[in-house]
From TrEMBL:
Residues 115-251, 414-502 form the BRCT domain. Residues 578-626 have a biased composition (Low complexity). It comes from Saprolegnia diclina (strain VS20). This is BRCT domain-containing protein. Residues 554-566 have a biased composition (Polar residues). It comes from the Eukaryota. InterPro entries: BRCT2_TopBP1-like, BRCT_dom, BRCT_dom_sf, CellCycle_DNARepair_Reg.
Length: 898
């Protein structure tokens, strides 16, 4: 088997011993033994033999090394031994990857930990289509969870993360995956692997590794499949702390591999050996120059002291400590773990350096009253070239850090915390480095940026700063003082945050008193159902299946129609769930409704009396005709399994993303409905940060929906808008005006948990008061989204049906937003000269939105004033749609006065 020379920074390891855990399958255990023997290692007969080898002198000025190779399920069996004596506990992939990358050099063990908390251990991933800020968050999270992120596509990687199934990197990943499949490692039998490995070991591993064993090693290293996942896979794996099946987090696409060639085992090995950037040595948590030879600057006080360094400290770090201590002139004493008669060595020690409060060195030192210090204390003393005080009675940050940790590992319950810092500097007390050290000590993840999706705790030096203010805006649950994590380290437990939170925000004044009043009315009149508090929809049957493909093929969308839906006439037309975008077109309503709107829209508020509830079937049909709901599955509660396609369900040519899917077309008849062969796809407009957009887009695609990419603009093709904050933005205002579903992100989260799109009713904005997780602009009437959706579904007119607008100047909101909102609300937008020609010929209302910056000398403004065209402020559009629709603002309140 061909090998390349040792990469820079790695040295050959002539003496190393491996204990192979017996709980592994025979094929895996024998393959590990083959790798160990090929690379010149020794297989230990017991754990004690491997532990004894770790750190022992080999007689050539170096130390031997020991390793334990086991599965993650057996990690707890061996971690107790790790508390007393350092020894790496790694997965079998460490041995496999080492022999594949370079059969003469062992890879660093940090990325192959058998700790089950390191969920991405042995994973090598690269990203595509990810922005710099989310990429920084991804790298931090994956590295904390034991994985490695590459900066470039690589055949040696195991996973590729992307946001969309497109681009050269996506196509290359498909090709690599197809090439790996040609190796057919899945067809190997364990018996053949065991037989070949046993025979190879019997020959004293002479010659190349047998192909069947090599193929098994490559397959177990996940190198035959190039898995393509979305952002949600990372998020969910971290949340549940286990690797989830990648097939559930891929993409539906029509791409096929191109230019795929048959690869051989040697091709894979050569590709791995040529990629020198994989698995670089991990830098130490403390600067390397602290441990350098500083004998020239030695102080006399060091020469009078003797140190014992505990054997549970990592061997490489421990050796650098010993060299630095001896360089300053101090003595080094060695306490052997397996020699009970050797305790007298401790009598001559003045300092005992331990990483945690376990192991023989700590126990003996404690019993003999010796001064015990931590690694951080020794590092600080070496940096200052003086022995610092070792009195740890006061509970300061430095004392907590300078004394050994309570035990090896992390604090239970804190491994999954993601902590961001604010306000700490190199000169603050505690310093930024001190805080990062404490975060590492408890086992949490330090995230350098504040992430709305991932940050679980923000530790602030003081109650100020950009991160602090943003956390308050986001209602981040845990904004705490640094004393919180200090208490966690001192008590070595997860201390509740409540006592250490910064001053809570003053209680907000109630914004929507009308909701409370309606609750009182409902209590007195239980038979009446208001638009604010619809009846709780009946719980739909949800399958326990978790495979999204099966769910989408077998389960109809769980969509219910509120019993309070107004009466609507039965149309005998073809209804589509998506509206076409047209700037100068408006949606036609019934003649009766249009007449009422024309006479009252400009002068009096629109008030709609309660109507008699209509059957759910009628309401759903009319809602679909208004284009406000993408789902009309309520028309047939359970589809026949063998439903035939209607002529309207044939596929069209030249379909774009903005056009309705072929399955979106439904024929609604007076007395019968035609069952659809496929539920129409929901089309989502998303809002939020880059991370939230990535997560929600992954969920939508996972469930079979479509994400409409329109930047910050509104796209009328959408059927749903997801927003965590109900603000006066173009997407939200236009969605309200056109009767779209406006839902909280909880809808996608809960739908993801069930494996299919749930009923939207319980997640619509306006059903309840604003919670701490959701924010509503106080200028918006809370139930406005539900009002417009139900109003249009019942056949009501849009806000600006029969209205004609023109825009003069650079308005606020911008002219483009005004145009999109007007069109979404059923109005027509003309340029000012065209409106002047038609004014007086067409029926009103015809108005012009005038920007504040328009000068009085403007010719068009003078012409408008001469013809007495109504001039209004642009804010009228937003207020007319979003204010209380039972008392709409009047046009006269917004007249523009030059």
């Amino acid at each position: 088997m061909a090998n390349t020379r040792s990469p820079g920074g790695r040295r050959a390891r002539p003496a190393w011993t491996v204990y192979i855990s017996p709980e592994m399958p025979d094929a895996m255990r024998m393959s590990v033994e083959v790798c160990v023997r090929v690379m010149g290692g020794t297989v230990a007969a017991s754990v004690d033999e491997a532990i004894a080898a770790e750190g022992s002198p080999n007689g050539h000025g170096a130390t031997n090394e020991g390793y334990i190779v086991c599965l993650s399920s057996a990690y707890e069996t061996y971690v107790k031994a790790r508390e007393s004596h350092y020894i790496p506990i790694v997965t079998p992939i460490w041995a496999f990857r080492s022999v594949l990358h370079n059969a003469q050099v062992l890879l660093p063990t940090e990325k192959f930990s058998a700790n089950p908390r390191k969920v991405f251990s042995s994973i090598v991933l690269y990203t595509s289509q990810v922005e710099p800020e989310p990429s920084k968050v991804l790298r931090t999270l994956i590295a904390h969870s034991g994985g490695q992120v590459l900066s470039h596509p690589s055949r040696s990687a195991t996973h590729m993360l992307c946001l969309r199934p497109e681009g050269d990197a996506f196509q290359q990943a498909l090709n690599w995956d197809a090439e790996g499949a040609t190796l057919q490692t899945d067809t190997l039998s364990d018996e053949d692997v065991v037989r070949a490995a046993t025979a190879f070991v019997a020959t004293n591993v002479h010659g190349p590794i047998p192909d069947v064993v090599l193929a098994y090693i490559i397959g177990q290293s996940h190198l035959t499949k190039h898995r393509i996942v979305n952002y949600l896979w990372i998020y969910e794996c971290i949340r549940v702390n286990q690797l989830l099946p990648e097939t559930l987090y891929g993409f539906e696409h029509n791409h096929k591999p191109s230019g795929v060639r048959d690869v051989r085992l040697s091709d894979v090995v050569m590709a791995l050996q040529c990629d020198s950037q994989l698995f670089p040595p991990v830098s130490e948590a403390l600067p390397l120059d602290i441990w350098r030879d500083i004998s020239q600057n030695a102080a006399k006080e060091w020469a009078d002291n003797a140190f014992v360094v505990a054997s549970h400290i990592a061997t490489g770090l421990r050796q650098r400590m010993l060299d630095a201590i001896q360089g300053l002139g101090a003595k080094v004493l060695v306490l052997r773990d397996n020699d009970d008669d050797d305790e007298s060595v401790m009598d001559g020690a003045t300092y005992v350096v331990c990483a945690h409060q376990t192991g023989r060195a700590f126990d003996v030192a404690l019993a003999r009253g010796k001064t015990i210090v931590g690694i951080q204390w020794l590092a600080a003393s070496l940096a200052l070239r003086t022995l610092l005080p070792a009195n740890f009675d006061e509970p300061t940050v430095r004392n907590v850090l300078w004394y050994p940790a309570k035990q090896f590992g992390s604090i239970p319950g804190m491994e999954g915390l993601i902590i961001t810092l604010s306000g700490f500097t190199v000169r603050s007390t505690p310093s930024r480095d001190d805080m990062q050290a404490m975060i590492r000590l408890v086992g949490a993840c330090w995230l350098p940026v504040l992430s709305r999706s991932h940050t679980s705790h923000l530790i602030c030096f003081e109650a100020s700063g950009e991160k602090y203010q943003r956390a308050l805006t986001w209602d981040l649950p845990n904004v705490v003082k640094f004393e919180w994590i200090l208490a966690c380290v001192q008590q070595w437990r997860y201390v509740p945050e409540a006592e250490f939170s910064w001053e809570p925000k003053p209680p907000k004044m109630p914004k929507f008193d009308v909701h409370d009043a309606l609750q009182v009315l409902e209590a007195k009149q239980p038979s009446r159902v208001t638009p604010l508090k619809p009846k709780e929809p009946e719980t739909s049957f949800v399958s326990t299946l978790t495979t999204p493909v099966l769910l989408r093929n077998t389960q109809p969308d769980a969509t219910d129609v509120p019993s309070s839906a107004p009466t609507a006439p039965k149309p005998d037309v073809v209804v589509t769930a998506s509206a076409k975008s047209s700037v100068k077109s408006s949606v036609k309503s019934s003649a009766k409704t249009s007449a009422k709107t024309t006479t009252k829209a400009a002068a009096t508020p629109a008030r709609k009396a309660a109507t008699t509830p209509a059957p759910a079937k009628k309401a759903a049909a009319k809602r679909a005709s208004a284009g406000s709901d993408a789902s009309v599955s309520v028309l047939e509660a359970i589809r026949p399994a063998t439903a035939k396609k209607t002529p309207k369900e044939t596929k069209r040519k030249g379909k774009t993303q903005s056009e309705p899917e072929p399955s979106d077309v439904v024929v609604v008849k007076q007395r019968r409905t035609t069952a659809r062969s496929k539920t129409p796809k929901r089309m989502f407009l998303l809002t939020g940060t880059h991370e939230e957009l990535a997560i929600n887009e992954s969920i939508v695609q996972f469930l079979g929906g479509v994400v409409v990419h329109s930047a910050r603009a509104f796209d009328p093709a959408c059927t749903h808008v997801i927003c965590k904050e109900l603000r006066r933005t173009e997407k939200i205002i236009a969605a309200c005006a056109s009767g779209k579903w406006i839902l909280t992100p909880d809808y996608l989260r809960d739908s993801r948990a069930q494996g299919l799109f749930l009923s939207e009713e319980g997640y619509e904005w306006g059903l309840d008061k604003v919670s701490k997780d959701h924010y509503c602009d106080p200028r918006i009437w809370l139930p406005v989204a539900k009002y417009w959706r139900t109003h249009l579904a019942a056949g009501g007119a849009r806000a600006f049906d029969k209205w004609t607008f023109a825009i003069l100047g650079e308005t606020v909101p911008p002219p483009s937003m005004c145009t999109h909102v007007i069109v979404a609300a059923g109005g027509v937008v003309l340029d000012v000269p065209t409106l002047l020609k038609k004014f007086g010929v067409q029926e009103p209302p015809m108005v012009v939105l005038v920007a504040d910056a328009v000068k009085k000398t403007d010719k068009l403004l003078k012409s408008l004033l001469e013809k007495k065209v109504p001039l209004v402020k642009p804010g009228f559009l937003i207020d007319y749609i979003t204010k209380d629709q039972h008392a709409r603002p009047e046009l006269q309140q917004y007249y523009y006065l030059p």
